[in-house]
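Annex B. Sample input.
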Amino acid sequence: MSEIRQDQATKRWVIMATERAKRPRDLAATVSTTEPEPEYSPDCPFCPGNESKTPPEVLAYREGDGPADSPGWQVRVVPNAFPALRPDGEVVVSQPHWFTSVTGVGAHEVIVESPVHNDSPATVSVEHIGLVLQAAAERFMALQQDRRLCYVALFRNNGLAAGSSLTHPHTQIIATPIAPTSVRLEIEAARQHYDDRIHCVYCETIQNELDAGQRIVLETDAFVVLEPFASRWPFETWLIPKQHAAVLTPGDASPVEPLARALRTTLNALYHALGDPAYNLVLHEAPLRDSCEDYYHWHIEILPRLATAAGFELGTGIWINSVLPEESAEYLRDFVSA
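Annex B, continued. Sample output.
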């Protein structure tokens, strides 16, 4: 019989469709494969030598002292050539009582993760992932100084099915003048839990999942990686820091190496277990200047696109998952090499 589970952190409901459940290895076999990408693509705007095809860089790490917007970089950050939001202008709210709109002020940047066109965060070194994380931290610090902005989103779309239009490895940052509704709802659920139990729901999740042991993929000194009890997607994976904090502290070098190592191990396991699946990786943290330190807990969610949200999910907000997280965790553990 199927089971309906509730996620304690968000109060979302998920139907675990055990009667039509798929085995994890069977699902992995259905992942589509494409022709291997080359190390360099002359038409790719992110490849070395094509720096003029992007807007001028705002940050780059180079091995030498080369000029800006020239080859020789290891990680490069540029404004998106087709931004969702632009940094010019003031935040103006129009007709706030009904037809509410806000001027599209913000920032939309791309972290080009590597000069190698076919690199993957699942296979590059931990040190290189650390460089990408440090670049993200630097840009977060810069964007947080802009009082017009309320939220900074960090996300990675891997593969066409996940919404990526370019295969060159890259992560995106979008800073908005509003706090996303989904983030507000997530924070409110965490606040209500804290009011009821005087504990952070994510800290309790870590402890309860470690005690249960069934859905743990990886545990390090600093992080727990797990398949959530009420996973929406097959192989939905959360990476949660053991130390409670509402935001991933930007500019603090101490968490970069442990996070880089845990993230690389997790992505490497998904890469080999599922055949480099399409996925969305999203950082969840508190809005800027928001006082929710006691009850909100930053974390990273990785959502492989191994299923499609259809009418029931879109119409009800209740997800149907055909792969039990206990089984996906057991399967992934065989591919973990910390």
